[in-house]
């Protein structure tokens, strides 16, 4: 009896080995693939970790794998000796490369993440103007943009199936003025002046409400906003200062009053 127990204890089994560790199925060409068992102990069983993507059946030492839609799954093979091995199955299907946005606006020295909506993986990116912005693809397949200076940069994104798309990044300055605080009282005959310190050029101003009570204009050099009260009024309205790239600053005038005696 002891001798029999030792024989059972010393008994060894072969490792289960498949002819590949990864299988790629391209649905644009053929939906099936084959995994061959080249070593094992027989009486094999096979399962798929995601049967919505991949199904698998076994016939002797050959496993027939069918791809149903793009994605991936692990096919696990187990024999009667409980030896097992996994084969990763990637189901591929050519799709257009589309980003969630085709353009974006940033200020200098900002970071932004752009998502890929559809694509075929293996992304790379190039830019026509690296002094404006730069980008890299992270390990999640996202595009990481870093803005550098005002201007426009066009990025070209490419996937492993040679599909391409463009991402336009416009970098603009923030508008800065010397005083953007509310004006509680604007005295008739004493204009308020707001100086524009930085921005994207092409400045304009617009007075809200009736032109009978309030007027705004730009100085000759286009860098100062002149706000004038014309008629006494409990006003509580805004003057909007804008530049050619759509940056805006609003200044609220609470009341317009006569000069103090």
Description:
Mean pLDDT is 91; it is low at 1-10. The chain is rod-shaped, with a radius of gyration of 35 Å. The longest helix has 9 residues, at 2-10. Helices cover 3% and strands 52% of the residues. The chain contains one helix and 25 strands. The chain is mainly beta and 261 residues long. It has one helix at 2-10, and strands at 17-18, 22-26, 32-39, 45-48, 54-59, 62-67, 71-78, 84-92, 98-99, 103-106, 111-114, 116-118, 124-127, 133-137, 143-147, 151-158, 164-171, 176-177, 183-187, 192-198, 204-207, 214-218, 224-229, 237-242, 248-257. The strands form seven sheets. A four-stranded antiparallel beta sheet has the order 1-3-6-5, with no helix packed on it. A hairpin with a 5-residue loop joins strand 7 and strand 8 (84-92).
List keywords for this structure.
mainly beta, 261 residues, 4-stranded antiparallel sheet, disordered N terminus, 4-stranded mixed sheet
Strand and helix map with partners:
Layout: H1 2-10, E1 17-18, E2 22-26, E3 32-39, E4 45-48, E5 54-59, E6 62-67, E7 71-78, E8 84-92, E9 98-99, E10 103-106, E11 111-114, E12 116-118, E13 124-127, E14 133-137, E15 143-147, E16 151-158, E17 164-171, E18 176-177, E19 183-187, E20 192-198, E21 204-207, E22 214-218, E23 224-229, E24 237-242, E25 248-257
Parallel strand pairs: 2-8, 10-17, 19-25
Antiparallel strand pairs: 1-3, 3-6, 4-7, 5-6, 7-8, 9-12, 11-15, 13-16, 14-15, 16-17, 18-20, 20-23, 21-24, 22-23, 24-25
Strand content: over 45%
- Give Rg in angstroms: 35 Å
Distance between the termini: 123 Å
The largest β sheet comes out as:
4 strands, antiparallel
Number of helices: 1
> Count the strands?
25
What is the string of helix and strand elements?
HEEEEEEEEEEEEEEEEEEEEEEEEE
What would you call the quaternary organization?
A: single chain
